[in-house]
Amino acid sequence: MGGEFAPRPAIRAATHRALAARQAIVRTYPEWEAWRDQARAVKAEVIAHLDDFLEQFQRRVRSWGGQVLWAADAAQARRLILDVARKHQVQAVVKAKSMTTEEIGLNPALSAAGLAVTETDLGEFIVQLAGEPPAHITAPALHLNREEIADLFATRLGLPRLTEPVQLSRQGAAYLQSSFWEAQMGITGVNFAAAATGTLVMLENEGNLRLSATIPPVHLALMGIEKIIPTLTELSVFLRLLPASATGQRLTAYVHFISGLKAQAQGRQAFYLMLLDNGRRRLAAQPEWREALFCLRCGACLNICPIFQLGGGHLYGQTYPGAIGILLAQFLGTGADLSDLCTQCGACSLICPVKISLADKICALRQKSLQQSWLRLLVRAGATLLARPRLYRGLEPGFRFIRHHLPWSLQTALWGPGRRLPKLAPRSYHHLVKQGMDTD
Amino acid sequence: MRPGGLLNLPSEVPDLSLLFSRLAEAGVRGHLVHDRDRLAHVIGECARAPLVCEAHPLLQAVALRLRAAGGPEPHFPKELTPDEGRASTIDTIVTMGLGAIPETGSILISARSPAAYRLSLRPRCHIIVIPAACAGLTLNQALEVTASESSGLVSWLTGLSRTADIEKTLVLGAQGPEVMEVIVYAENISWNASR
Is the peptide bond before B114 cis (omega within 30 degrees of 0)? Predict the structure, then answer.
């Protein structure tokens, strides 16, 4: 399990607001369920013939002048990106929000190579200053309040301490403005990629992605290979599903379509597209699990999850939190077993815009989970013991002794970081009743 | 190719009520104008100096009228260096749009004039002029227009730049223009003129 358990009211409030905004827009779409089915069918078709679509896509991108790089894993992706940076003598990089760059651990690698990296999405910029990973796929600084952000701006950037969110947002944006013109390379993610035309589609709300993609002399776009769709025609369904599910918008403030090299004063901008596997092909090859690749990264399954609402993204300790993160951790992440971070309420499956049966998959994951098999054994042993009161009472002093002398480190291992096992009452309820004493 | 011809769009001005209503929801004003004098007048009302216009024949013609009426002197950038971009202090930019999608209140712009495209996130105010024949695109028609665009870069703009990253408080115009004006221009213009 990941970071320290720290319930934040801000997370619960923000997820509830996001869900309400989503509901308000979905209510106006009578075709919503049909769109979900269509989107799922498109994704299923693409993942079943992934290599064919990728081949067509890379041919089209090369035909308009883009350079295509393939990365089998995170380490190779980092190496190739550093090679591009060296080739173009890059010293400063601006980045737009991209979970895929988080997945490959790009920022630490760029910084270690001596490059100045600036996250230009305001939320990402804030968590970069805080030295923390994003707390949410679409709202990275969800866990920080205005006071904490004001402190960061004042101490890390030397800016006057303002505490109104509007003032802070403008202050951060103004600070970022010059970074786009000073950077030699812009790095962005990709939301969709149309194989037939070699078109990259990117959604954003702030405008920083557009600046990162068009102003520096080099643009590198990093995409997971599952982001392919056959043609731009299929996009109409996804453009309705994704913004509505993510932020309750009909469309994000900006949708960009790139299908050619961009002109600049010095000539054409150099463009690199990196196609990242990092476990995706292995996932696509397993029919039982491949639907995890249908994910649009909207974050709706995070917002609706009662565990996420309580603990936020840091609870998972992985790039992708929430229900989808539990699945992806097995294939795209560290292989961490997060299957206990699920109540099996099933809300994630109902809200997913591409109908990924998240709860069923997590249940299946639990079945094969080693950690869960230990838990099952423990529960079975406990049930056996509790069904035999005489045996339990006989062992009770031993349990009390163990609990009393349990070292702190073992408590943490059993109960999770930052949590304390509750102390036992001096005498058991059974003992008090037997003595005829007041049990209140 | 002219999108109107490609998609067989109507030659008359489409019903703009849904588009203008969606724009208003997003804090953007919509205008319908039928001639160049009126276009110059509306731009003159919204724009402040320093003013930059995309190098498009229609906007160049309108700029003469604007200047004659005592409006701000427009500049037509061909391309800009990083130093010029960093130092840019433009208040208003006027660009041509490819069309609009009433369903979402989105405006399509392209990088046919790369300098204007790259500058259009900097100024306080962005004025976009759209040919009326392309102001009633469906989402699918907009995707066709986008696919047929030769500049290699198209952006759909739906409202103003926005962020809600701090305590979910919505802030408009943080990393882009604070004001957007959309002018639907109903006089016939040559779509190929900007190529």
Answer: no
